[in-house]
């Protein structure tokens, strides 16, 4: 399903250029959200408050002001989205690890959230999970009631947080390597010096050298 308010506005066509500057120095380049990178990289291990943070940032990118209210105290609504100070979007977040939790979200849970948002008069609702929905649960989706499962969530993160998503994926490819003791962020690459005939490590991030342990 393609969600109408998930679509980005088409950018005006740019004149073709042989220069690659716009690729390697993208317009509006900004630092990544380090917390978001860590949550994306460890999505299946993240706590509910971290998952709420991630989904809140996504909802903000969709054009809403937000407030996290904790669904325990409001029948499953974790985040409220506002437009012009009016409550228009209700969001429920479920951080379930499919590698450990063998039960997808079922129709009963979806209907409970749907009923709450309808009775409270929300124009749109999102049910977001790191797991999946059963087929009967998916049948409850509509033009203003959206079910975001693991696959769709990753698509949205790649679309709206490309830098953070890329950074998380990059370090996932290096997860077997030791962390740099200097910057605490980079990974140590094992290299060999022909002149000294010895191995050493280089941090791919801060470029610091370290002896092999």
UniProtKB/TrEMBL annotation:
Residues 43-157 form the Restriction endonuclease type IV Mrr domain. It comes from the Bacteria. GO terms for molecular function: DNA binding; restriction endodeoxyribonuclease activity. Keywords: Endonuclease, Hydrolase, Nuclease. GO terms for biological process: DNA restriction-modification system. It holds the Pfam family Mrr_cat. This is Restriction endonuclease. It comes from Savagea serpentis.
